[in-house]
Amino acid sequence: MNNNDLAELLFPEINETIEDLEKRFPKRDLPSGALVTRFAPSPTGFLHTGSLFTSLIAHKFAKDTKGLFYIRLEDTDTKREIEGSGVDLLRQLKEFEIIPSEGYLGDHEEGNYGPYKQSERASIYKTVIKQLVRDGKAYPCFCSQKDLEDLRSEQEKNKVTPGYYGEYAKCRNISVDEAIERIKNGEPYVIRFRSSGNHNNKVKVHDLIRGDLELSENNQDIVILKSDGLPTYHFAHAVDDHFMRTNCVTRGEEWLSSLPIHIELFNTLGFELPMYAHLPVIMKLDNGNRRKLSKRKDDEAAVSFFLKDGYPFEALIEYLLTIANSNFEEWKAENRDKSNDEFKLSFEKMSLDGALFDIMKLKFISKELLSRMNKVEITNRALNWAKVYDEKLLDLISRDKDYFVSIMNIEREKENPRKDYEKFSDMFNAIKFFYEDYYLELMNNELPFNPFISKDVFKNLLKEFSDTLDLALDEQAWFNSLKELGTKYGFAESNKIYKQNKDMYIGHVGDVAELLRITLTSSKQSPNLYYVLQILGKDKIAKRIDYVINDKL
Ligand code: GLU
Hints:
Blueprint: H1 3-10, H2 18-24, E1 36-39, H3 49-64, E2 68-71, H4 85-95, E3 102-104, E4 109-110, H5 122-134, E5 138-141, H6 145-158, H7 176-184, E6 190-193, E7 202-207, E8 211-216, E9 223-225, H8 233-243, E10 248-252, H9 259-269, E11 275-279, E12 282-286, E13 289-292, H10 303-309, H11 313-324, H12 328-334, E14 355-356, H13 359-372, H14 375-389, H15 391-399, H16 401-408, H17 427-431, H18 436-443, H19 455-468, H20 475-488, E15 491-492, H21 495-500, E16 507-508, H22 509-521, H23 529-552
Parallel strand pairs: 1-2, 2-3, 10-11, 12-14, 15-16
Antiparallel strand pairs: 3-4, 5-6, 6-9, 7-8, 12-13
């Protein structure tokens, strides 16, 4: 019996050869320099912020170089799989406008290099492994969990590197006859790769971000096919990225340490090594210590957190691009109106250390972005968001869309627009006073009227304000009329004049404006009062003033 017999016994159903696969998945016909990149999520939960970062970068490099970006679903860990999460991942990527041109697309697949779900590629992996077995470069391993635990204890005792290698690789020297017999007897097995590496030798490799690296060769006989007939990550990576013709693997830096395994696999299989870029991991400061964003501990580890909170998706993208390339922020400041597509991302400018996630910066970016949307755009975006996440805001918008648009338009569409909102979830509380039912509810709270000014003065002033209000005045003229009215009741025209002669006045025009604000909005803080008046209109203003004079002062 020889390796051929073993290979036939292991994979009788496999008739294709590696050459057939090479033909079935030919080299891609793309211009030189075009990068073929991919995002390869495992369907084990929500879209992680770190995964959004890696997919954004893979997508952008493909776009920048007129290459291609595709998605492969790495669903070989059936125990950790969460049903439906593959579809969810795709939906969320779409919300960030990361649209693959090929691959696993959630409900269907597109492209000639599939299937793009690893669980459906078993025969491809087996074709490659069958050849490795024939060549004596892979072998069945019958070690049980217990055998592996014993091995580990022995290695710990001997103080040697743990793992399945060299003399510790118990099954690598089993004869073909014995292996065939044990398989025929129904013993469970996995398939291992027979490494010819030596840990004391170095292998050179270039990382697009980290430059030239020298790493110790792999010497581990890693498992390439599990007992459930599915491959491990390392092997699937080599086979898939080769036959899907990825030429640039962008992935988290946590994979850097297994690069020697991948190099040995590619070399043994005679596959050309793709370019690699190991991306920085997103970190967080926790009590002064840096650590990876954690699924369990940090809300911001899940992309859904930002969507739910109502950050516009562009804010997160812009923020992640500032993490990706140190020169992006400056470029963006100078090119506010240009699409991010016009910024060329570069591997050289990528930071090496894990980037710290800075929510304050994201908020700053988000405020800026929201302030620059025009009134219709922000209304529609708020509406779309509210449909999914905020019933109360949805109700307000639906009552009267034009009214909502006019609220959104306060000091918008101008050179220095107002920055009222950080996220869509800020809107409801900020604007509800414009609506009568919520206004009355708010007025039941303690109202912060200035206690040092007589209620009678307030009442008379408000009455006259209501009777004489002219909404046709422009902002400046209106403010002048407010000053005049104030003067009549003993308020100085400005804070400065008041301070010079405090005895002569009961307050200044700011106190008058404050009185109006509280009367009309319940709070000392509101958007520009002039625009609040314009939006409420004379009737509502009169009604609110009456109500305050009669019930609240
Ligand atoms: N499925 C792997 C992960 O989720 C993909 C790594 C890679 O991009 O190669 O980490």
